[in-house]
Amino acid sequence: MRRTAALFAALILTVSLAACGRREESAPAETGAPAAAEAAETAEPAETPVPSPTPTPSPVPLIPDLPEVHDAELETLLSGALTVYPGTAGSSLRAAACAARLLDWGMRTEQSDDGIYSATGCFLDTLADQDLLLFFESLDSVYNMGYNLRGENA
Question: What is the pLDDT of residues 9-22, one digit of tens each?
């Protein structure tokens, strides 16, 4: 149950960070703008309604506020994913070793799911952008290996 929770927490973090990405929208095309300007000049002035101030919605946090939990062993295990380097020789073996260590830790940990989630968030906060990208690229391999290790063929 704990290892499933650890893998689920890692998956949730991956999805929540992917959802934080923003796309820049292109400016709308200016078709029909001259015709609209001419129509506005010829029309009688109408009473312009005063726009009511709309409250700006506050952003909903993707990650709930949890107490910061630092688990040095979990941070060491998660940093092992930074050595996977997907697409290089031996990366699948490193991913399998990292997944096995995470599964072992998940079986013997006393932490709650929220504690694991918070400790993982604290670890991710310490990474530089380049390491964060490498971590999430590697996490896919580690997750797949962990899924295979705990499956029927294990």
Answer: 776 666 565 555 55
